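G., the chain you wanted modeled:
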Amino acid sequence: MKLGVQQTTVVCVTARDRWNDTGIEVSRGEEYSLQAEGTWSDASIEKNADGYSSSNSLFQVTEGFRRIPSAAWFALIGTVGRDLRDAACIGVSGRLQATRDGNLFCFANDLPFMYWNNSGSIRVSVTRIR
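Predicted structure as tokens:
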């Protein structure tokens, strides 16, 4: 699906899927606003799309192994295609500038091998700004 300027659609992003294909086609140079509602869970830790900070030394030691080390645990991340090079930390409200053509993907920021204990989903409104 290709959005026109100022057109909005709502997608569901699940916490357990490493890559959520939104089905939204983006093109280089386009800009999108994303607004997330709801909560999802990292094992027993329920949070919104802004995620959470490390709560103990084990979490602190493993921060560098998250898919996007600079973003909070369970923050909503957006990418074009399955490419982490230009990943954008969206959180509850953010923007994504498309640097290439492809589909918009989203995911909860976690350790690559720990998606098995995630649950829930959030609703994300995606609006093409330009």
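The mean pLDDT is 96.

Shout if anything looks off.
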